[in-house]
Design a protein that fits this description.
By secondary structure, the protein is an all-alpha fold. It has 8 helices and no strands. Helix 1 crosses helix 3, helix 1 runs antiparallel to helix 8 and helix 3 crosses helix 5. It is globular, with a radius of gyration of 18 Å.
């Protein structure tokens, strides 16, 4: 059933955070930790991709149930879900590549199609893709599904460029940082659609964070600094906790308005 256009959304509390500087900071921290934590669980602990994927999927489902029950944005609940979905999105792509032998080019195309299909169905039902009006369970479900595919797609694109095309971690990171900078310029200087800019930036922060995580954690013979997945994950976990505490202390609910964000 499609949304009733006569239904008033004014005054409802948004279930996801405002898009601010600290949002992008913690998002980058979360995706970086997602990369290193996935590697730590699957490789360093010796659980393997299949077992790690099963365990983390169950934990993610529990975190999302907790998030849906709250029906509003609670910083710690929301960002736990983001970190976990970052891990699962990484493992999803890794399983396709390592266990099933799916080429990264195919994964990139496949997840692009799935993400586009998610947006199409979301738009068909809600007539908006705005992240400023996530105040129903259905919109939140579309939102989290889109995020899962952005993480899986970002992992595939990042691995394709850094490993398959052999650009290395630093060069790959600089490429995606440049892409994000171009999106920001297009938004602030050339009136790029805000929702389109958000989702594009959301996709490309994933391979940027993954490149950063790999550069810090991987040994020098593979082009990294050799900090290891444990110390890198703990470093970013600490930064995430500090940022979440800051967000919680400064949190103000974002109220939906009928007149807002109809641009996509």
């Amino acid at each position: 059933m499609k949304s009733d256009p006569s239904f008033s959304t004014a005054g409802l509390i948004n279930r996801v955070p405002r898009v601010t500087v600290d949002f992008w900071l913690i998002k980058l921290l979360a995706v970086t930790m997602g990369e290193t934590a996935a590697d730590y669980l699957a490789v360093n602990l010796g659980l393997g991709l299949t077992t790690t994927s099963a365990i983390m999927t169950v934990v993610l489902i529990a975190a999302l149930i907790n998030q849906f029950i709250r029906q509003q944005y609670v910083p710690w609940s929301y960002w736990i879900a983001v970190v976990l979905i970052s891990v699962v999105g990484t493992l999803l792509t890794d399983n396709l590549s390592d266990n099933l032998g799916v080429p990264l080019e195919a994964s990139t195309i496949g997840f692009s199609i799935l993400l586009a299909l998610t947006f199409f169905i979301w738009w068909s039902y809600e007539r908006t893709l705005s992240i400023h009006s996530i105040f129903t369970t259905r919109r939140e479900a579309f939102y989290w599904l889109a995020i899962l595919f952005t993480f899986a797609l970002g992992t595939a694109v990042g691995d394709l460029i850094s490993e398959k095309f052999d650009f290395g971690y630093i060069t790959t990171g600089l490429i995606f940082a440049s892409v994000i900078a171009l999106i920001a310029i297009a938004y602030f200087s050339f009136s790029m659609n805000g929702i389109l800019a958000f989702w594009l930036a959301y996709i490309f922060t994933r391979p940027l964070g993954a490149s950063l995580g790999d550069y810090l954690s991987q040994p020098s013979e593979y082009g990294g600094l050799g900090f290891g997945t444990v110390y890198t994950s703990l470093l970013f976990l600490g930064a995430i906790i500090i940022t979440v505490v800051y967000m919680t202390a400064h949190y103000e609910p974002e109220m939906s308005s009928d007149a807002e964000h109809r641009d996509l």
